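Help wanted!
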Amino acid sequence: MSDLLFNTSLLDEVDRFQRQMSSLFSGQPSSIRASRLSTFPQINLGSTDDSVEIVAFAPGIDAAKLELTVDKGLLTISGERARAEPPSEGRSYAQERFEGTFRRAIELPRDADPDNVKARYANGCLTISVGKRETSRPRTIAIQ
Amino acid sequence: MSTQTQLAERNPVAVARHGDTQAQKGPTIVPAVDIYEDAHGITLWADLPGVSRDRLNVHVQDGNLFIEGEASIDTPDGLRLHHAEIREPRFARAFSLSADFDISKIDANLNDGVLKLSIPRREEARPRRIEVSVG
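Answered by r_m:
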């Protein structure tokens, strides 16, 4: 099963409470690349011994309109989501879904290899796998 | 006059716990929706990233429309999570439907993690203009 999703615990509850509190006190300085809670797309990030795995939850986007760049260790996901075609006449009861242009930046760890990035868009999720440099992989050292 | 009437309210950080079955499975995410109504019926879009067709369950019971889905993402073994903005892989949201809608003709379409539901009105419930004859 996917670890990117199944990690719910008591700590999550604490974390959610913290996020709710921080949204109450928004406007306070925080990390320069951190952004508000309801950003789009939402991102989960994890790593294995030989790669950094990033999932951006970006449903309903034309894959051709997604742009992915790596520059000086900063991975940027940008694109645009068009609004769903509303009926020409009628009423709107809810408009909660994100629309417009977006950009999110992720600082990659120093051992990430920008030449070895794989990205796949499926089911509205952009999965990005950034390889780690050979030298940074954990290894056991044989004792003579 | 404004034609925008927000009837459905959603707290983006809300994590709902409801029903016995849901409580057993743990918390769920309330998916974002767009809802429009025209003369033919209601069109609803819901964001369900990572949910494939076989893990999506849309059903109507006792006049309530339920949308439930579970996200699954292929990840390599031995993954350690560092940062998560989506934690619960389950989405759930319910709406009550009035008797005006023909639940036997609901059309559901899932594409790139967006569910589009078309809920038509019953023929007899469609608005019609009544000609006023001068006599």
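OP: Thanks! One thing I noticed: The radius of gyration of chain A is 19 Å.
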